[in-house]
Amino acid sequence: MRTLLISILIPLMMQPVLSIPALAQTEDPQETSDEGLENRSRSDVALDYMQNERWDFASYEWRKVLELEPDNIEAHLGLARSLAQGGFIQEAITHLKETRPRIEDPRLDLEQARLHAEAGQTDSAIRLYLSLLNKNPFHVEAFKGMMALEMRFPEDQARTLSDMLEKRAKEAENRANKAFATGSYQQAVPYYELAAAYNQKGTLHNKYALALLLSGDGEEAGEEFIRLNKIHRRWELHGNAALALLSQDETHAARKELEKAIQMAKEPSDRAKLYNLLGYVCESANRVADARYAYAHAIELDPALDKARMNLAYIYLQDYRYEKAINLYQEVLARSPQRSDVWTTLGFAYELQQEPRKAKAAYEKAIALDPGYKEAYRNLATMYDKLGKKEKADLTLKRMMSRQYAKLEGVSKQPSAQPAQAQEHPLFQFVDVFGVGS
User: Fold this and answer.
1) Whole-angstrom Cα distance, residue 77 to residue 350?
2) pTM surpassing 0.70?
3) What three-state secondary structure class fits 414?
């Protein structure tokens, strides 16, 4: 119910850069390519040769792959990279030049641009990078390639290129911020990556790492937070790094990061948020007593931090201490009486305490506040079902379904009247993430 909903979801935009040459005379690769292959594909064998820097044999295997699959992009890239790595960079460029008119794929264009740059053929590299950016103005790897070539130009041309890159980076940052604000973290990632390649602002890189984290790439996010901390030394970065570590079930390391953050933070409200996060980490590690203490201390530091109250109330529910949980939910509702989610959870606590009338009243209050809140309907229907009131349970579910149909009908009739709503990450129900100044 409360596990961290973060998983690694974002694929790499590019395959890793590899490379290759001509056949050596010491062995016959044909001996390893028929019976010796067994269940392994030629591509796997070629990759093994590349990993072991046996570029000539890798080249042979990639050519064999292309005889059977002439449109295999990975094989074309593998052959080109292997030729270049083995010292045959012009042959690699020629291969890509001959392949690109037949197969349209931006990875081939990007690889040829990279090889031109490596060979010192700056003008050819720039033309290909610009072509990629014309097709996709926010192509991250093409943008990075252009940045790497900036120093090779005369001062006046370099200034023009720098102005273009700066403008593109600002636009990418604007788009990333808009996507982040609406909860579209995966969409924000490539924009932030491009902007962060150009600009070293701490606030920008922190949001890039948060976008990675909230879109599921906790490992990459953690590396970015650690890199940032070496530069900026901020408690917020330690706190965010703890979240990234928690997403990988590294609870011990997450606690260490939070201990550093708590020592550095000065404001009680900031320390309260960190203790709340510490409680969440302890809870994830099944250290319930430590979690209870951390949540309670967070409330002492900032009595208005309702996330800590909700977290502590959940632990009390788990411990069958229903009255304490109910008191905490009522404290939250005293400040935020319009929260249908809290009314629903309060109803559940009353239900566990064997007080169905109070539970029903709480569920109905949640529904009155938000007629589209499914959890309140479901909890109420489940309670009726447990009490043997099957008819009331069915009626409650019908109320929910009729509400959903009415909502869908309204959307279909008036699509322009339905503004897009920001989708809050589920994690934010329990803890905070931390912004960083520039």
Assistant:
1) 63
2) yes
3) coil
